[in-house]
Amino acid sequence: MMRFxxxxxxxxxxxxTADRVGRVDEFIVDPKTRSVVAVExxxxxxxxxxxxxxxxxxxxxxxxxxxxxxxxxxxxxxxxLAGKDHRVLGKRVLSSKGDELGKVKDVEFDPESGAxxxxxxxxxxxxxxxxxxxxxxxxxxxxx
Amino acid sequence: xRTSEINKRPVVTMAGEDVAQIRDxxxxxxxxxxxxxxxxxxxxxxxxxxxALAWTSVAALGADAVMIRDxxxxxxxxxxxxxxxxxxxxxxxxxxxxxxTDSGVDLGTVADVVIEVAGMTGGQCDVVGYEIEASEAxxxxxxxxxxxxxDTLAASGEHLMVPASAxxxxxxxLAGFGAxxxxxxxxxxxxx
Lengths: 144, 192
What we know:
Chain A is mainly beta. Chain A has helices spanning 4-7, 76-79, and strands spanning 2-3, 11-14, 20-30, 35-42, 49-51, 57-58, 62-65, 71-72, 92-95, 100-109, 116-121, 124-127, 131-134, 139-141. Chain A has 2 domains: 2-83, Roll (SH3 type barrels), CATH 2.30.30; 85-141, Roll (SH3 type barrels). Chain A is 6% helix and 47% strand. In chain A, a hairpin with a 6-residue loop joins strand 4 (35-42) and strand 5 (49-51). Chain A is elongated, with a radius of gyration of 15 Å. Chain A starts with a strand and ends with a strand. Chain B is built from 3 helices and 13 strands. Chain B has helices at 3-6, 77-86, 174-191; strands spanning 10-13, 18-28, 33-40, 48-54, 58-61, 66-68, 74-76, 98-101, 106-117, 125-134, 144-148, 154-155, 159-162. In chain B, the strands form 2 sheets. Chain B has a 7-stranded mixed β-sheet with strand order 5-6-1-2-3-4-7. A 6-stranded mixed β-sheet of chain B has the order 11-10-9-8-13-12.
């Protein structure tokens, strides 16, 4: 498992040219599939969005892609999930019962599949599988 | 919980958007249940909204937020008011009403309303008691006391009628109040 805080800043390298084509900046999470659908990059030439499906490998030292052309402006589906309102980090967490659980300090994910496995809160953690929604006010997780 | 604690609580969708905040409680069933809530917009300058939230559309009433499935849960205020009124709701405000026993003793005036959500999602939101500013009849004039209510009661806006035995089940705080309500209602069932 990997955390957003570890993976942020990691270099993105093209396997065809061996050039560094960008750095990981932010993660775009789709609460419906409870997984990372794309990463936003900085220090790129064109565009700043790399879809999860276009990533060759999310390694411990570098993220690899087949070429710089995989970095795009992102499609409508991805840009709809980008931006501050849909950011998970730093946001308050509400249970589906309406109780506040804390704030998101970090997110743990599976570097193979992109699945969000856990939300790390300032006082404990919740399973990624309980994620229901991410909005401008709160991250909502399912509570029994 | 007290209804005064619910005021200003945000209304949040399962998608994590705060679409409104609670403005006031709409009562139904003669003041014995919560029919819904009127809403205000979020933000400093936001005023009352034209939409309201029926209790049946509330997914959960939590300590920090009122959860709804999505924005479709909101409906025009008038239809929520009408629905509550047709269920015998006064729609009006009980705060400040004089609490009278059926034997004609003034117990005090209503300062707050205590509600309890029955069981799971979809359960009724019952009004189980009132916090009253006690009168002389209770021997502790001026103090705040919690008085349990029967399942149904008569309210006129000016007066609120409770069985005389209600005064034997008053509680000082919410912690011991649950037991008071159960004991009171059990006693009422025995006598009827």
